[in-house]
Amino acid sequence: MTRIHTVERRIHSDRQAVGRTTCRTSTSTFAAPLSYNGRIGCFCVSSKFNSIPYNRSSSMRLFLTFLVLVFIVVILGAGGNAGYRYLEEKKRPSFRTAKVDMGDIEESVNATGNVKPILTVQVGSFVSGPIVKLEVDFNDRVMTGDLLAQIDTRLFLANVRRDEATLTTREAEVKRTEALLRQAQRDEKRAQLIQEENADFISGAEMDQVIANRASLEAQLEIATASVEQASAALKNSEANLGYCDITATHSGIIIDRKIQPGQTLAAQFQTPELFHIAVDLDREVHVLAAIDESDIGAIEKALAEGRPVQFTVDAHRDDLFDGEIYQIRLNATTTQNVVTYPVVVIAANTEMKLLPGMTASLSFQTNEKRDIKRIPNAALRFFPTNTKWVHKDDRKLLDGSMWDDDEADTQISAKQKHTAAIKRKKRHVWIHEGEFLRAVEVELGISDTKYTELISGDLTEDQELVTGLKAKRK
Question: What's the CATH number where 282 sits?
C-alpha cells in the first residue's frame, strides 16, 4: 500500500507539472506523463501494480522518417517527370521561319562577260622594211591620218624614180611614133595623087608598101600608148608603196597595243604584220560581250524588245554599279561540251574611263519586274521535311512519293507533256508549323529573284510564318 501511495503522489505531482493525467483505478490503469532521466515517458499502473514504460520519441522519429521518405519519393517523381518532359522537348525539333510579305520582285538573268571597245582597228604594214621612226606609244590618243611609224623609204623612192624615167621614155616613144605615122600618112596621100594622074608612075607593089608602112606605124603608136599606160601604172604602184612606208592612223582612238619596236624589220611578203591596235571611241562607250545560255535567250529577247536595263559590276571598281542596255543578240551560237550559248552585246557609257578592255563583268539582265505583290521567301521553297514524325499524317504522302509524277522524269515524253510538266512545276508546297506537326500548303508561283518568289495563289496570308529549316540545337 505504501508503494501505491508513493506512485499516486508522483502522479499527482507530475499532473501539476505537465498537464492533464488520466487515471484508472481498480481494474483501470493510471497513465501519466513522467519525467524520467530527462525524457518524457509514461508509467502505467494496473491493479496488479505492474508498470510498463512507453517511448514517444522513437515513434516520432519513425513518423518523421516516413514523412522524409514520402517527400523524397514525391521529389524524385516530380524530377523524373520534369526530366522526361525536358528530354521529350529536347528531342522535338525547333524550326526557323520566315514571313510572307508584300514587296517588289525583279527577275533577272545573270551572266559574265568581257569589256571590249566598240571597234578595235588593227593597223598593219603592206610593205616590208626596217622601222626608222616610231611616233606613238601605248595609251596615246591619235586622230585619223596621224603618223604612227615610218619604214625606210630608200628602196621605194628609188623604184619611184625608176618608174618615172620609164614613163618618160614611153611617152617619148609615143611622140616619135606619132611623127613617123604622120609622115607615112602624107606619103600615102602623095602616092595616091600620083597614081591618079598616071598609073604608070607608081606600081601596085610600091603602093602596097606605102599603105603597109602607114598601118604598121599606127600599130606601133597603139603599142607605145599602151606602154605609157603600163609605165604610168608602175609609177603609181611605186608611189603607193612609198606612201605605205608611212604608217598612219585610219581611225581616231587610243593606242591599246603596240607590237613593234624601233629598228625592227617587217616582212610583209606572206602575211600582213600587225603593228598597232586602236580602240575607237573607248572614252565614250564600250561593249560588254556576254555568253547567254540557250535556255535564257528567250527571256533576253523579250528584255531587248521591252528595252529593259542591264546592270553590271567589275572587280576593279567593286563599289560602282554600271548601267547599260542590250545592243545586239548575235546569232553565231557557240557549243562547248554540249552547252549552247549565244553572244549578247551590251553597250555602256565609259566617259570616266573606268571600264578598260579585257575586264570581266558580272551582268544582270532584268527580264521582268513586278511591284507590291505578295511574295514568299525562297528558303521556304527549298525546305523539305526529312522525318515523317514531324509531319501531319494527312501530308505524309508528300514525303513517301505516292503523289509524285514519274512522267516528268521520263526523257522520252512528248513535247506537249514536257510543256504540261513545266506548267506543273510552277505549283509547289510550303510548310507551316501547326501545333506539334508540320502542315503542307500548296502554292502557285510566279516570277522570282534571289530571295523571293511571287505568290500567285495559295492559302497563305500576309505575315504568316513559313518553315525555312531546322534550328541548331544547343549542346
Answer: 2.40.30.170
d(CA 254, CA 256): 6
- Given a contact cutoff of 8 angstroms between Cβ atoms, the answer to whether 244 and 109 are in contact is no
> How many C-beta atoms surround the C-beta of residue 260 within 10 A?
18
Residue 350: inside a domain: yes
pLDDT per residue as tens digits for the range 75-134: 877 666 666 555 555 566 788 899 999 999 999 999 999 999 999 999 999 899 999 999
Same-domain pairing of 134 and 260: yes
| Calpha distance 430→384 (Å, rounded) | 8
DSSP 302: H
* Residues 6+ away with beta carbon under 8 Å from 176: 224
Residues 360/112, Cβ–Cβ less than 8 Å:
yes
Helix (H, G, I), strand (E, B) or coil at 346: strand
User: What 3-state class would DSSP assign to 325?
Assistant: strand
- CB within 8 Å of 57: residues ≥ 6 apart: 39, 40
User: What whole-number distance in Å separates Cα of residue 273 and Cα of residue 128?
Assistant: 9
For residue 299, give Cα distances in angstroms to 94, 106, 294, 368.
Answer: 40, 13, 10, 9
Q: What's the full length of the chain, in residues? A: 475
pLDDT tens column, 17-54: 444 433 343 343 444 444 333 444 444 444 443 444 54
Residue 60 lies in a domain: no
Contact 258, 276 (CB under 8 A): yes
Cell numbers given for 182 = 604622120
Q: What angle do CA 385, 387, 393 make, to 5 degrees?
A: 85
Total structural domains within the chain: 5
**Are the C-beta atoms of residues 257 and 276 closer than 8 Å to each other?**
yes
**Residue 350 sits in the same domain as residue 466:** no
Residue type, 99: K
What is the C-alpha separation between 119 and 279, in angstroms, rounded? 6
